[in-house]
Amino acid sequence: MARLLPGLGLTAGATAALLAVAPALARTAPSLSPLVLALLVGALVGSVVGVRSRRGPGAVAQRRGAARLLTAARPGTDWAARHLLRAGVVLLGLQLAVGDVVGLGWRGLAVVAVTVATTFAATLALGRRLGVDRDTTLLVATGFSICGAAAISAMTGVVDRTPRRVRGGARIPSPGAGPARPPEGGSGWRSQDTPADAVATALALVALFGTAAVVVLPWLAGLLDLTAAQAGLWIGASVQEVAQVVAAAGTVAGTAALATATVAKLARVALLAPLVAGAGAVRGRRSAPTAPAPGSGRLRRGGPPPVPGFVLGFLAAVALRSLGVLPPGVLDAAAQVTTTLFVAAMFALGLGVDVPRLARTARRPLALGAGSAVVLTGTSLVAVLALT
């Protein structure tokens, strides 16, 4: 516990400061999620200290205190990035009631299901074609098809649970599994983005293209002469963040658009658990090591269970919310705690992001985000026009 205290203290202080500026952020930039801001601040702090500490001996001596602080904080921030993230995903389930989703009707549910499935599969295929790191591709596909930062946070649990391959057959183990070993002979080793870099890239793309959608989609809805219900369904099925959905649907005349968009967004959140569980099962089968079973010559496959525990917790929270036994005050408090946990985890995760390296390698992920956004908005529009 003593090893965790410096990092937990740093994370708690940064979280309090970020939450203090959140109301002003909501007024000035409603489409920018506090989660994205937290990761940006963490990445800025970590990158500035890291870059300065790599300069000459004199510069290292001048900034030694900051570098030592981050080094001492690393165990606590790593713990926060992992465990607070999963706790936030569990509590996210309390914002979703099955009855609200069913109220969208079969046509609306079909629009959401087709959009999510098409966007997720197309983004994975496009990422392979562009040569984007598979972790980044998976997180971008999840964030664009489901619910932005929260979905990326949930899928991070899958990324952390599986080793990361590099060229030459070597594996980078998940956090806490010990140091990685280069391939034998020293050949084939190449630099690989860390999970924190992949999360930062995915969140940046969600913020960028989601903000653009807040402006473009309401304008296109008016240009296409969509009804308020159609516009709301289209926005709810195709905009990444919840805050971005509210901001975009709020500019459409009438309350029907906002109500429909919110429910459509909840329907996408409902698909988070099966998507994360499915991705975890697939990646677990592909990356789990094989070892001889005791007392036999046959191989058995190891690795973590296919369904992460926090996904089961998310489903339990959804079931509890759907029963209608929790008073509104408890649900409001749970929503605030959820945001706090996500902000803390994103700041802690951001400390491990290498911003200069991301800036040098951003071209392909940017193309991936653009392609995913086109598929997302195009598929949902076609589905809305065909089914409603």
UniProtKB/TrEMBL annotation:
Segments crossing the lipid bilayer: 36-53, 108-126, 138-159, 198-220, 307-327, 333-353, 365-387
Predominant place of localization: membrane
Subcellular location: Cell membrane
Keyword Isomerase annotated: no
Compositionally biased region (Low complexity): 169-179
InterPro entries: UPF0324_pro (IPR018383)
Recorded GO CC terms: plasma membrane
Domain of life: Bacteria
Location of the region described as Disordered in the Swiss-Prot/TrEMBL record: 165-193
Record keywords: Cell membrane, Membrane, Transmembrane, Transmembrane helix
Membrane topology field: Multi-pass membrane protein
Family assignment from sequence similarity: Belongs to the UPF0324 family.
Protein name as catalogued: Sulfate exporter family transporter
Organism per entry: Isoptericola dokdonensis DS-3
